[in-house]
Amino acid sequence: MATPQDISKPATTPEVAVRRKPVRTSSGAPVPEIMKQGGLVPWLYLFPALLVMSFFIVYPMINTIGLSFQNRDGTASAATTCREGQPCWGVFENYRYALTAEFNTSSPGAFWNSFWSSSYGNTIKWIVVMVFGTVSVGLGFAVLADRVKYEALAKAILFMPMAISFVGAGVIWKFVYDYGTSQTQIGLLNSIITSLGGRPVAWLSTTPINTFMIILVGIWIWSGFCMTILAAALKSVPDEILEAARVDGATEWTVFWRIMVPIILPTITVVVTTMVINVLKLFDLVYVMTGGNFQTDVIANRMYTEMYKNFNVGRGTAVAVVLVVAIIPFIYYNIKRFMEQEATR
């Protein structure tokens, strides 16, 4: 029979339950359950996405690089297209054509003029003017829209051009710039000019203004995108800092340049690099409005011309590779900044 002393003693069992502490990373955060299933299981979840990306991105990229070293129909090496008495880069002959064919090297002056009328020179014009224009206009819209009563409506109206396809926008603005050979002008811009007593201008065939007139369409389209991103960044500027600056006598111009811009500078940098990538890929506006004629060609449109008008696959893919190489540094910079921001969170 058990005594009171025996009842008061806790029962002893040979097995004692041990509560395991949750596994944590070096930073102290708990390890996700999926990572406790072994090193292979996460890759199984990623496999479908990796398979699709390999089929639609990796394989075409490798195939494009391979075709850039071959002749126009991919049946022989690009070295077979070399002509006697002319420069030849062997298997890199398509790259020689892609990089030098548009330039007149007879004299420094001729080279300078031919460069700025080439697809490379026009692309630089697009990068400088359009990136500066879209970011500047977008930042201005973001600041002004933040101060109006119907902010959401104002931003929706300013963002509306982004809802139009680039082909549709090109068709619309082609009618705006239309130049009629007769006295009657159906183009809106020339109609206004002639009604004021001026002479109509062939906006899309007169160099060098035609490139800048197309760039103006790009600014009209992309300013709403820049405004949306920069407006969100401006919302993160602390009101206390702005109020303190105004109390100290700072003007709105000083507050904008000395406080707002430095705080949102990382976002401005991301927007600038994103716009550079968009400009380098630009094709539809130029194709719809001028077809690359009248010295308005850009790199992407030149690639299309070589592949689908001249039917020269080797040269077209070489231009495509040059375009990708030009874009990669900006993509790398954006990814690097994103990873740095994630590390600071």
Could you name the key traits of this structure?
single chain, 345 residues, mainly alpha, MetI-like fold, 14 helices
Short description:
Among the domains are: 75-116, no CATH class; 119-297, MetI-like fold. The chain has 14 helices and no strands.
Structure report:
The chain is an all-alpha fold and 345 residues long. Among the domains are: 75-116, no CATH class; 119-297, MetI-like fold. Helices cover 63% and strands 0% of the residues. The protein is built from 14 helices and no strands. The chain has helices spanning 4-8, 41-67, 93-100, 108-116, 119-145, 151-159, 166-176, 188-195, 209-235, 239-247, 252-280, 284-289, 299-309, 313-344. It starts with a helix and ends with a helix. Residues 13-17 have low confidence and may be disordered.
SSE diagram, text form:
Elements: H1 4-8, H2 41-67, H3 93-100, H4 108-116, H5 119-145, H6 151-159, H7 166-176, H8 188-195, H9 209-235, H10 239-247, H11 252-280, H12 284-289, H13 299-309, H14 313-344
**CATH architecture title of the domain at 119-297:** Orthogonal Bundle
Structural category: mainly alpha
Overall shape: globular
- What is the CA-CA span between the terminal residues? 65 Å
Percent strand: under 5%
Note the run of SSEs as H and E: HHHHHHHHHHHHHH
Helix content: 55-70%
| Major sheet | none
Number of helices: 14
CATH topology title of the domain at 119-297 = MetI-like fold
